[in-house]
Design a protein that fits this description.
Elements lengths: L25 H5 L4 H13 L4 E3 L9 E6 L9 H6 L5 E13 L5 E8 L2 E11 L1 E7 L5 E7 L1 H13 L8 E8 H8 L4 H8 L4
Antiparallel strand pairs: 1-2, 2-3, 3-6, 4-5, 5-8, 6-7
Bound molecules: nickel (II) ion.
The site of nickel (II) ion (NI) has 5 residues, from α4.
Length: 202
């Protein structure tokens, strides 16, 4: 991985972020033809830094995403905030053709989210607390996992990208904050405080 692997991130307003991405042919994964793109996506995600990146965000309209989370990404959170988000380590994973379905009976949970394609903004999004993820990995091998907490949020966000959706489509728009305002007023406070002050329901 090197600096030249880091690609520019497509910003909202570009139609590539709004088109459903095309499925990846499993044979293409098995031949390694996407290895360089995957390395570039990983380098781009790490440089940003972010916890997930979908191929349309680097201008490639295929159903491919990379995800990764760990302590180096959540060091700005207090232990209490990390626990509230159920932010647990998610090893680097390639997801091709992911199908994300709610895990039965586990409800929705709302937290602030951002997106590398929508810089400088954050808004509260209700997501399934737990999901089942079926996909292919970088070798074309099947993945079938149940994720909960923040890892579940990450894969829902990335699967949305592959469907041409942005988190803003699902956001509580009255919660929309610039990153600066969020840091000044709402970081470290329960979402209920923002809901009461800004006039939305959780
Ligand atoms: Ni995003």
């Amino acid at each position: 991985m090197s600096a030249e692997d880091v690609l520019p991130i497509v910003q909202c307003g570009d139609p590539v972020l709004r088109r459903p991405a095309q499925p990846v042919d499993p044979a293409v994964l098995r031949t390694g033809a996407l290895r360089r793109l995957i390395a570039q996506m990983r380098a781009t995600m790490e440089a940003a830094p972010g916890v997930g990146l979908a191929a349309p965000q680097v201008g490639v309209g295929i159903q491919l995403a990379v995800v990764q989370d760990g302590p180096e990404r959540w060091e700005h959170l207090t232990e209490e905030e990390r626990a509230a988000r159920e932010r647990t380590a998610l090893p680097f994973t390639v997801l091709a053709n992911p199908v994300v379905t709610p895990a039965a009976g586990d409800g929705m949970v709302g937290f602030y989210e951002g997106c590398l394609s929508v810089p400088g903004l954050t808004a509260l999004v209700a997501r399934h607390r737990a999901v089942r993820v079926r996909a292919l990995d970088e070798h074309g091998e099947p993945i079938d996992q149940v994720l909960s907490g923040w890892p579940a949020r990450i894969v829902q966000h990335e699967a949305d990208h592959l469907g041409g959706r942005l988190y803003l489509d699902r956001a509580e728009t009255r919660s929309l904050s610039t990153a600066d305002t969020y840091a000044r007023l709402w970081a470290g406070r329960p979402p209920a405080d923002a809901a009461a002050a800004l006039g939305f329901t959780l």
